[in-house]
Amino acid sequence: MIRRSTSRSVFSTLLSGALLGAHCGTDAVQSRDPTSLVSALSRAGVARSIEPRLSIPTAYRTCSPVLPPGASVPAARCAGSRVDSIPSPAILALADSTRKRLGVEADPDALHVAAIIDLLWAGSEGIPLERSVSYLRTASRLTDHPAAVLTDLAAALLVRAERHQTGRDLLEAIDAASGAVALEPTNEGARFNLALGLERLGLDGQAQRAWRAVLQVDSTSRWAEEAKDRPLAPAEVREFPAPPALTAPDSEVAAYAEAAPEAAMLLGWDHVLDSWSAAVIGGDAHGADRLLHSATVIGRELERRGRDATLADGVRAVRALADRPSATLALARAHHEYAVGRLAYRAGDYDAAERSFVQVLRAAGYSAALRRWAQLHRALAQAYQGHLDAALAGLRPVVANADPTRYPSLVGRAHWARGTIALRRGRYEEAIRALESAAVLFERTGERENLGTVQYLAADARHYLADPAAEYAAIQRALATLRPFRHSVWLHNLLLVAARFAAADGLPRAAAHLQDEGVEVAERVGDSIHVAEAHIARARLRVAAGMNQAASEDVVAAEGIVRALEPGPRKDWFLADLQLAEAVTSLAGQPSLAVAALDSSARFWASQHNQIRLMPVLVTRAETELASGNAAAATADLDRALALLNEQSTSVASMTLRASLLDAAQHVVDRLVMLRVRSGRPAEALADLERVRISLASTHRRPGEPAREPPAPAREQVTAEYALVGDTLLIWTIVGGTVQLARSTVDRALLVRAIERVRAALELRADEAALLPDLAALYDWLLRPIEP
Question: Which residues of the chain have pLDDT under 70?
């Protein structure tokens, strides 16, 4: 029996049966020189029929992208004659030669050509398109020079994204094209496809730079002329009209309410009614009447158009007290206190904001609309302070008692807050339900920025529900909605989340582009703390990519901003984020200081019950402790991180979260394993691997139910576990209760390439003879050491 370890196993169960029968030699198949199949395809003549650019010479045709109804990725229609769509005799002959070659072996040149033929001539959907993507992925792993293959993989993924409206395909296309550019900076096709993917995803700032980079390597061709015609500014920037003066004519006030309903509603509550309250308190009856009239016009226009009617009802409450001066004065003071609370809330002083909203609730009995807004904002202030149970208790009456048909903005915000709290607590299905309820209401009120915000939060929740298709569709919807809001903090937040997802999904270059865009958007927002947040996030991505110097520059850019913040919950939050980034950059060579920073960060996230933020801190601290020789502390942190992960699995199948944590923890586990091995404790090393594997596999358990151990092998069975740590291959054998370890040094690249060739050849059902040398080599690597 052969089992696969979760520690980057080198042995697929796909190979197990074939390996046992391979005894015919020890030399692996060597990569043959390219056989001119790609050159033959280039000579055969290809005309453009898809919008992306291929690695082979292609006769230029113009393409016109059109956005179908309900779609987010434009569909391109390329000019050309009917002859272009029919494969020539030369293409048909080449397809036959390629088929025969693939019947013999998994040759990357043949896979490359077969994929292009599928993409251009074998049909627009279904099996040929899927096969084209699959062949190109395999060829990119088998060839010694993958830039051209990656260019065409990006093209195929862009076509699939267009035809199936799949957001992940756009991200993978960006990742593949970026990889080709990294290998060949002057690759014209790769740069074209990178720019096109960034544009299609809605990363306008990155797309502008990428189109300019296209023109730096190709400034004269017809492809270059097309690049010059691409938008070198964001496709649409949402600019709201300036708010009218409080003395503006009714028509101007009504027009503003129509053009910017949310902004008009907030203007009425935060400014117009506050100014009215000041006039009442100051005894200015004429000024109070004029201001109340302005609020009336805004509220009436919003109500007439089916938007939020709270402002209209708030004005009615004031007018109902016209013959009661003392009651009017009390209500004016409540409105002023509400405006004070809103000012503190926007400034991030949530403790002061909550105190103001409590005062409003004590005095707002004359206005049900004012009372409901104060209830909502008190709950929001409590949530920001980490008082989640109190916040939920305050939100319940808002949702239960406010009519969503009349108060969609108010109730939508309450659902938004409930969804955010559920997300922080790891209750992802509950979060999605609340956020989708908010989305319906914001769609109706025309609050597009808020709609994009709850869409991105729903995408964040879906990331942890093992449903990648739904996750990426949600990201794509949110990006499309928020794309015009280039100054939006919510677009900044969405890019943070999307970059984290892409990195966890094995698309590091796409993640880097997302976060580069995030830094640019943060700089537009106008609040320096968001700039710091974007730099911290980019630092983490750069560390993972080995760009330590650039990561340190990001940390330095963020540090001054964060440490200059006024003491309070906001500073505590961002300081905890900064401490993690500092630990892996500037403090990387000082383990004791790094551990101290991580201790502080871990305490904060634990106090906030934020498991998602806490887990990477624990993993990083484990690595730091291991570097200083404290294996016991490292093991304890890893155990705690895995325990948090197991808590998530009691209610949802959070496989993507598990895989993401496993990837982050992998190098820590590897080092723990090697430490045990060098100390002569192979059984403990295997136990480390097993508990990670069990944690990854344990889903759908009831709270408190222990993880299920795998059944013990029968006495006559031999169980083998494999792990590849760097270039060290570890093979444990378990016979009954006896554990033995075989350890050898291998050429990692050769081993992985041999496995990939065999896998591809088996999938292609290639000739058995071509498999035998690789299988024999794998037998020598994987089975011969444990043959006895």
Answer: 1-35, 81-84, 123-126, 231-240, 364, 466, 645-668, 692-716
Tens digit of each residue's pLDDT (9 = 90 or more) over 285-338 = 999 999 999 999 999 999 998 899 999 999 999 999 989 999 999 999 999 999
Q: What is the pLDDT of residue 681?
A: 85
The SS3 assignment for 37 reads helix
- 3-class SS at 731? strand
Distance CA 634, CA 628 (A): 10
**Backbone dihedral angles phi then psi of residue 33, each to the nearest 5 degrees:** -65, 150
* Amino acid at residue number 245: A
CA dist 720 and 777 (Å) reads 18
pTM, two decimal places: 0.81
Q: Which residues of 475-494 are buried (b: 16+ CB within 10 A; e: fewer)?
A: bbbbbbbbbbbbebbbbbbb
Instruction: Please give the helix or strand (H or E) that residue 778 lies within, else none.
Output: helix 768-778
Question: Residues 78, 175: contact at Cβ < 8 Å?
Answer: no
Cβ atoms of 46 and 56 within 8 Å: the answer is yes
CA distance 202 to 478: 10
Do residues 510 and 177 make contact, with C-beta atoms less than 8 angstroms apart?
no
Distinct helix (H) and strand (E) counts, the chain:
35, 5
Q: Give me the pLDDT at residue 130, please.
A: 92
- Name residue 157's amino acid: L
3-state helix/strand/coil string of 62-99 = CEEEECCCCCCCCEEEECCCHHHHCCCHHHHHHHHHHH
Helix axes 167-183, 468-482, angle to 10 degrees: 80
- Structure confidence at residue 23 (pLDDT): 33
Q: Judge contact between 310 and 262, C-beta under 8 A.
A: no
Give tens-digit pLDDT for 190-213. Answer: 999 999 999 999 999 999 999 999
3-state secondary structure 426-440: CCHHHHHHHHHHHHH
Contact assessment for residue 152 and residue 58, using Cβ atoms and an 8 Å cutoff:
no
Phi, psi of 679 (to 5 degrees): -85, 5
Assess contact for 504 and 472: CB atoms under 8 A. no
| Residue 317, both tokens | 């409450």
Give yes or no for a contact between 73 and 165, defined as CB atoms under 8 angstroms apart: yes
**Residues 279, 294: contact at Cβ < 8 Å?**
no
Question: In degrees rounded to 5, what are phi and psi of residue 740?
Answer: -125, 155
How high is the pLDDT of residue 19? 31
In 3D, which of 109, 198, 106, 98 has the Cα closest to residue 152? Answer: 109
Q: Are 581 and 397 in contact (CB under 8 A)?
A: no
Edge-to-edge, what's the strand order for the sheet holding 718-725? 718-725, 728-735, 738-745
Largest CA distance in the chain: 103
In angstroms, the CA 118 to CA 45 distance is 15
Give the list of residues 6+ apart from residue 329 with CB closer than 8 angstroms, or none. 280, 281
Strand partners, 123: none
Predicted local distance difference test score (pLDDT) of residue 623: 84
Alpha helices (H) along 247-367: 250-259, 261-267, 273-281, 285-304, 310-319, 325-346, 350-363
Question: What does the pLDDT read at residue 218?
Answer: 93
The C-alpha atoms of residue 265 and residue 308 are separated, in whole angstroms, by 8
How far is it, in rounded angstroms, from Cα 656 to Cα 462?
10
- Sorted by sequence, the CB contacts under 8 Å of residue 202 that are 6+ apart come out as 479, 480, 483
Distances (CA, A) of 1 to 480, 686, 702, 717, 734: 50, 17, 30, 7, 10
> How many angstroms separate the CA atoms of 411 and 416, rounded?
8
- Tokens 């944590």 correspond to 661
- Alpha helix (H) ranges present in 77-233? 89-104, 108-121, 127-142, 147-164, 167-183, 188-201, 204-217, 222-229
For residue 59, list its beta bridge partners.
47
